[in-house]
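Hi support team,

I'm opening this ticket because the web form for multi-chain structure prediction keeps timing out on my end. I have pasted the exact lines I submitted so you can reproduce it. The total is 713 residues across two entries, so I didn't expect it to be a heavy job. Is there a limit I'm missing, or should I split the entries? Thanks in advance, R.K.
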Amino acid sequence: MLSNQVNEINTEDWTMVIKPKTGWFDINIRELWKYRDLIKLFVNRNYASMYKQTILGPLWFILSPLITVLIFTVVFGNIAKIPTDNVPQFLFYMAGNTLWSYFAYCLNTTATTFTSNAVLFGKVYFPRLTMPISTVIFGLISFLIQFVMFICFVFFYALSGSAVKPNVFILITPLLIILVGLLGLGFGIIISSLTTKYRDLSILVTFGIQLWMYATPIVYPLTGLSEKYKFIILLNPMSSIIEIFRYAYLGSGSLPIHSLIYSSVVTVVVLLLGIAIFCKVEKTFMDTV
Amino acid sequence: MSNTVIKIEDLCKTYRLGSINGKTLSQDLNSLIARILKKEDPNQKIGAVNFDRNEKLYALDQINLEVKEGDTLGIIGSNGAGKSTLLKILSRVTAPTSGNIYVKGRIASLLEVGTGFHPELTGRENTYLNGAILGMSRKEIDDKLHDIIEFAEIERFIDTPVKRYSSGMYVRLAFAVAAHLEPEILVVDEVLAVGDYQFQQKCLGKMGDISQGGRTVLFVSHQLSMIKALCNKCVLLDHGKVVKYGETVEVIEEYISQRQSPNLISQAVFDKDDQKENAQVYRVSIKNYQGDNCSIYEIFEPITLEVEYEIKKSLVGVALGFSIYKNQGAVCHSFDTDVNRELLNKREAGRYIATVAIPPILKAGNYVMDFTICRPGLDGIDFKKGIITFTVEEKTIDTSMCSYSTRRDGEFAAKQQWQYNKID
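Hello R.K., no limit was hit. The queue was backed up. Here is the completed structure from your submission:
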């Protein structure tokens, strides 16, 4: 504009080009890595927002699942008398609930990524994926605390002579945990992307997770189901993960390895789909949210 | 020639007018299925058979702009001109509809101070968080933490949660973090309207430092004086288009004259009003040296003010007063008839015409005049606001080197003579 001599634009000269929204898979891993400090700080922020100015503080990490499991034991075990594969009811429910609550947390929180951070996202750019990723990491931390508590109970029960038989499948625990986290992340970011346009989904999520829990063998064992129901329940990618987790630590129930492969495939597909939609939406969501 | 650091090419941003979509998933699915089956859309408004889906608003319309390294570019324009949209696209909060922006270097944007501050976190924690959000690495923040705290003047409170901060402290910390970003390009929205006067000056100084350090600053503000003080270049947007791009002073003048749409009035006439029983003005006009009503003057051209009024009954202490405002801003000159003591003492009833020369001190610009008949310290008898509008130009004289050019600071134009005496 100022000078008439227009420089030949050498594309390599520019460090950044701001373009209209492009294809489906426009994720910048290197940039995400550059913002790893931010992910760490978001995790810290999540912690602070949750437990600062509470009396019990991080004790809630342990208390809330403990109470949940106790209620499960009373309602499903003692009142409804649902069988638990001959393992102590308390441990049975705790195994399922520990993993499930991680999944539920990831899904619930990432599902509102765009809507609850609209103000922040509207003011400054940073890779939006840092937000759901930090959620999943924070969830992982609280999961690990509960997991340690679970291990303690397993030891306690094993030492006191209950029919609890941890076995070699313990070794695939990390895979199970990763699957749960990624599955929650994948579904969460799909929902968060869609809620920028369709607010009804956020309502659906809250009670959808409740329903989903009953479609997962948490308060009942997979072994007690007829073949038809078992097949349907195993279509749920969370089912085999929880069933195998319980088998590994308690030595009861079944070992649906085929279904675990299926769950892994679903996880990868859901995650990729989620990232694709998320990246598509993140560029213009400010105009619709 | 300095380098271009931002090059904007044919940038457009459109928004669809009206409802964005069905808003619920089921409605959208209905519409989609209907479209696939080639049936009538069940959610279409009745009657809107050929509803134009493409009715769009161009928030930015074919913007082309180049910003050079080290420039401080002011972006001005009325509301809805597209300033904020441009900043949002530059800071990548939203993507353009078409067109590209090429950028050299890191962009940091300050569309708001304290973005992402969490009330439960302490000042120190928030500094890290906010810095990271703005794109600083942990190490950078470590290095600057001390400066940031010092700049914000909150040493004592740095480990207190920010929810206990006063709003001033909060904003100071937030700005301090942002000010210590060291990006090659800084994009700033009107965030300086915070803090007390002293802190504002500090912020302005900091921004000046940034641009003097060879970095590029883009700055949106409605406060033209701030733009004038900070920016060497300026771009005027209107309805998503670049209207003018160039030297700050010229662009601001253009903006002001455009905004005022100067319907110049060189004469105002008023009917007889019986409710005004003491005195009344009938006509106010300004005339050029030929005695014609005129509303455009060259700088230093004599302007004669003529006022016709009636004193309806004999009064004591009456004065006619005028105030001249520049660019709808502050009064730049006001004068009175009270210089004539004898008229103050007693005014005979009757109809008068009074003339006076407006001193040739007005710089180029738009002027508005108020008129009043009053008894100073007692009451206003007749008051007319904004009755005369006129323009002073600096066309025929080359003012580029002159002391009275609008490019220079100062309110008045005056021809001055220097006396030189060689003493040694």
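A quick check on our side: Chain B touches chain A through 54 residues (CB under 8 Å). Let us know if the file doesn't open in your viewer.
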